[in-house]
Specification:
By secondary structure, the chain is mainly alpha-helical. It has a single domain, classed as Up-down Bundle (Amino acid/polyamine transporter I), CATH 1.20.1740. The chain has 15 helices and no strands. Helix 5 packs across helix 12 and helix 11 crosses helix 12. It starts with 10 loop residues before the first helix and ends in an 11-residue tail after the last helix.
Amino acid sequence: MQTGLSRVLPLRTAVSTSAGLASAAVNFLAAVEVAEYVGGQSAWLAILIAGCLIVFAGANFAELNGFLPSAAAIRVWIRRGVNDQVSMVSSFIYVLTVVFVIAADAFVLGRTFSRAVPGVPALIWIAALLGVVTWMNFRGIKVAGRVQDINAFVLLGTLTVFSLIVLARTPHLSRYHYWALGPHWFDAVALGIFIFAGFEWVTPLAEEFQDARAIPQGMFIALGCIAIAFGLFSLALTVVYPHAAALKSSLIPQLLVGMRALGPMGFWWMTIMTLTTAMTTFNGGLLTASRFLYALARERILPRWFARLNGRLVPANGLLALAGVSLVLAVVVYLTGQYTVLINAGAGVESLMYAMSSWLVISLRRREPARARPFHVLGYPVVPALMALLFVGLGVEALLTPARAGGIPWAVIFFGILFIAAVVYVRRVVPRIKASSRRPSSVGSLS
């Protein structure tokens, strides 16, 4: 009986998973925030700059994945490049970012369908979609991969077409200002990072791809697709609404843009796009994070219950746990409306993790210089060092963004609570789990 994961995924699923996890419905809200910071039609430029910076982070993950591919991904790399304690704490905070994105996406999905189909309660839509995606994941990696492929490519392709149509129908395009980022450009770029956040989460599927080279190739292709699709959408958004502040109070800006630009057809077009983004985020998040939990349990950091595979080689218990936590947090976010906390916390955590990836490239090159690396970061060690400093700055900026307007930095507080909880778990719970399982796990161990 096979006890490991199944190597069946092709390159296209690496692209769709990487792009789909980053192409969340909450990106529409993030695009409005970026546009508000730049104060004109140059939101696309802030997103492009963020995308160029993310390419350097992608190079880090490509080298690290080639250095040591594993379902535990960042957990293994931090353990070998820093130490075990930092690795465990970082892993728990990092895996929760997937839940943050799913919950924030569920919020946008609920608001969208409350407007489009007011007769059905929003929470029913959220629970139903999460249930359907969970069921499809239970059917195996091939089914979940096909679902991801279809939804991600439909989303990116039709969002690009929608934006081009809107721009083609807009008269006097030359009158707009496309290059002036304004005084708050750093804030805009920091939030622009969120639009790409999650692209690297394809790495926990390293043990399920037919060819290990698919992951770095897929990540870079996905980043280009995301930059084109959401860059064009942000441009269309700022042309249709030259003053993005008019959309600030709306929780469904994509529907308003669709209605103003193309009428009812645009409204329903963007409604379907919102459903597609939710499908890619829910499916991709559960698909990858469940493998990450499986790998942590395989190493006895989580209870072995999370490492059990069903007959289709799916970590079913981890999948159920993630779906349950995501649903609870989605309901809380929907009822409170505090989605911006998740946006800023997610952008902050992702930026700090990108900084960590730069440091890991430097650290592991020094600690294990002889180990084979199919992919090498360019400009070592200067470029990774500069990127580490830059992403730290972007992460702190994202976490502090609400405070800069005189508000309470809830994202920082939220991050602090997560950090304390992770430290307590690592110091109090993990030793008990390891002590209760003295024999080697029957489901394998990490390299």
